[in-house]
Amino acid sequence: MCSVLLVDDNVQILEFYSLVLSQVGHQVRIAETCARALALLKEVDPEIVIMDLRVPEMEDGLGLIRTLKAHVRAPGKPRRKVVVISGWIEDLAATPEQDSVDCALPKPVRMELLLQSIARLALTA
């Protein structure tokens, strides 16, 4: 299993995703804001970041995607994977940040699809 950072301003979504991902064996940290996510990156080095595209602050998540791309992982570790879950997935299309996202899923996302996406990304690490 892998370490995951969940970023969403909806606490209920964070709690649900966290519960399910923890039950299947992932190590999960949560952040309700981009600022909290950046603070957590100083403490933990998640393999996968799962984030809402429209999070208050940092240009609705695009700024966080740019920051995640620039944030270097420890030597010898593979590149961090980024999963975007959004009701406005088309907002990501035609942006430079689209190339920094490994998987984009529309809300509401079926948990089975999210788990399959995480498993696939973990295998490509």
Task: Please render the helix and strand layout as text.
Blueprint: E1 3-7, H1 11-23, E2 27-31, H2 34-41, E3 48-52, H3 62-70, E4 81-86, E5 103-106, H4 111-123
Parallel strand pairs: 1-2, 1-3, 3-4, 4-5
Which key terms come to mind for this protein?
single chain, about 120 residues, alpha/beta, five-stranded parallel sheet, about 20% strand, globular
Quick summary:
It is built from four helices and five strands. It has 125 residues and is of the alpha/beta class.
Structure in words:
By secondary structure, this protein is an alpha/beta fold. The chain contains four helices and five strands; from the N terminus they run βαβαβαββα. It has helices at 11-23, 34-41, 62-70, 111-123; strands at 3-7, 27-31, 48-52, 81-86, 103-106. Strands 2-1-3-4-5 form a five-stranded parallel β-sheet. The model has no long low-confidence stretch (mean pLDDT 89).
Number of helices: 4
Number of strands: 5
Give unreliable regions as ranges.
none
Outline, from the CA principal axes?
A: globular
For the largest beta-sheet, the strand count, sense and barrel status come to: 5 strands, parallel
Compute the average pLDDT. Answer: 89
Enumerate the strands of the largest sheet in spatial order, edge to edge or round the barrel: 2-1-3-4-5
Rg from C-alpha positions? 13 Å
The helix content is: 25-40%
* Distance between the ends: 12 Å
Q: By helix and strand content, what is the structural category? A: alpha/beta
Q: Could you give the order of the helices and strands?
A: EHEHEHEEH
